[in-house]
Amino acid sequence: MIELTSVSKYYSSGFLCRKRAYVVNDVSLAIRKGETLGLAGESGSGKSTLARMMIRLVEPSAGRIVFDGIDLLALKKPALRQLRPRMQIVFQDPDTSLDPRLTIGASVAEPLVVWQKAGRHERDDRVIELFGMVGLQPELADRRPFELSGGQKQRAALARAIALEPEFLVLDEPTAALDLSVQAQILSLVQVLQKRMNLTLLFISHDLQLIGRMSDSMAVLHEGRLVESGKTDAILRRPSDPYTIRLLEAARESEEWFGKDK
Amino acid sequence: MSLLAIADLSVQFESRSGTVPVLDHIDFAINTGERVALIGESGCGKTVFGMSVMRLLPSNARITGSALYAGRDILRASEREMQQIRGKKIAMISQNSAFALNPVLTVGDQIAESLTLHTSCRGEGLEREVIRLLTSLGIERPKENMQKYPHEFSGGMRERILIAMALACNPDLVIADEPTSGLDALVKAQTLRLLKSVMQDRTLLLITHDLGTASALASHTAVLYAGEIVEYGPTHELFRHPMHPYTQGLLASSPSAGFHPIPGMSPAPGQVPHGCRFCPRCSSAMDRCNSTHPSLKKSGNNRQVRCLRYD
Ligand SMILES: Nc1ncnc2c1ncn2[C@@H]1O[C@H](COP(=O)(O)OP(=O)(O)OP(=O)(O)O)[C@@H](O)[C@H]1O
Ligand SMILES: Nc1ncnc2c1ncn2[C@@H]1O[C@H](COP(=O)(O)OP(=O)(O)O)[C@@H](O)[C@H]1O
Ligand code: SF4
Ligand SMILES: [Mg+2]
Ligand SMILES: [Mg+2]
Hints:
Chain A is of the alpha/beta class. Chain A has helices at 47-54, 77-83, 94-97, 104-114, 120-133, 150-162, 180-197, 208-214, 232-237, 242-256; strands at residues 2-13, 19-31, 36-40, 62-67, 70-71, 87-90, 168-172, 200-204, 217-222, 225-231. The chains are: A alpha/beta, B alpha/beta.
């Protein structure tokens, strides 16, 4: 469904812009249709930048990205715009996923309006349907983001992201700010939607337990480079890269704290 | 003897659409040397609880009840008295380290500021104290780093600086609001180890939705649901043998323990059921749970639970 070849992103500085700070360095990977790729790595490792390049919210400095047979980087603005509804993103921070000035009903309806997907009445019905799909009570449609809990905001952001029935969805640490029960709810919802809509997913998290639960294959990013990629089960059973091993140990350490004597 | 004893604390917010109750008749005490975690879903009122103890809630908040600190009701203290308590006696590490620091002051100046406000440290002694604090929190090259601005640090470093600021005046009670949220797995593990060592002999109120953080740091844990405490007990007992169906569900939601979410959603403030507030989502519910509101009762040694099954 989506394939990256030697994708890099750097920011230039210094004399004649000769100094290059690589944020993402020579990354190649692919996600098959209907599958989930888990992307792990510590904060600042370039996960979000890589994800944004995959849907061309950020311009890569080098490399090639093919989305469903289309050379993404060769597209001009209008053609790219035509492709937009097919790829969507949910951000880490529920507060940046939604426009604070709009009610969440309006936020969810907005892509339908922009893409003229439905007449007024059908649109209202569709918004109610979307609210149902993500488990939001329709009465909440009139509220603004600050009047909602973090879990409700992420549900609304998810409803907005699936409104146009995308084929590829990026989830950038969607539950980092949520507690366990809400996290489990939203992620099992994602899995249901994935099956129903045959979604291809990029799931970003620094929590390897979650990656294990959510993904078919996974990749680990460290200082912008891919240090590990392959089937999730195999990597979690036998990580080969020292950095992945440290991440796994940190995950185990926090596990061990459960039930340990004080 | 409790360092902080909160009785019958309720908090409501006045808004255009009416009054929204957030916390309901909370009874809660922390003894000197205890590290108590307050856990619960996002939006359940954990931050509001911490802010009401600090008396930092916005003006549309209505607070009732009492909070005795060293024999004094801080809910009725004047703003002048509160300035003596805040930072010096009770210090808070606020949620979201990106916003909690002043972006235009060097971190050295910010730590020095709270020291000047509450202690007699001045001049060279002041600088020595800032350096000592930064060093104790594992910040290398403190002399160089104290000249830097908050944005020059990573999230984990900023969290350490916030901890240093909170400890600056050697407070009796530290309130830490989500000290590890937003940190990645490696930095979180580091920060937890550090917090564990600096909080060893201190009294801590830890506010978190992260069970790993609670179990790493807290001697006792209180579980908040829909504005009420539903369970309280020694942390490791509570996690090993959760009594309240909500706590049981929370633990079963962990990715390593089945990843089974609790069905349904917690009620919106002001729309709580009449009987047990967890009833619509509870798999152990009985007929009377619908109509009878359970109270928080002692159960065995040291534990409390709000559930009719244990009556
Ligand atoms: N416009 C920019 N100019 C310079 N550096 C940048 C820019 N955008 C991002 N970076 C740097 O790129 C690195 C990777 O950033 P990115 O946000 O992709 O990381 P991340 O893995 O998503 O981290 P987090 O988990 O904290 O969100 C960081 O060091 C960041 O400072
Ligand atoms: N100033 C305010 N006015 C109205 N409601 C508020 C205000 N501050 C917080 N709330 C509400 O109080 C509840 C608890 O919020 P908060 O303490 O931030 O939760 P937590 O820290 O557990 O995530 C939420 O439902 C929130 O919407
Ligand atoms: S009182 Fe009843 S509904 Fe409430 S938690 Fe206990 S068993 Fe469940
Ligand atoms: Mg990110
Ligand atoms: Mg909070």
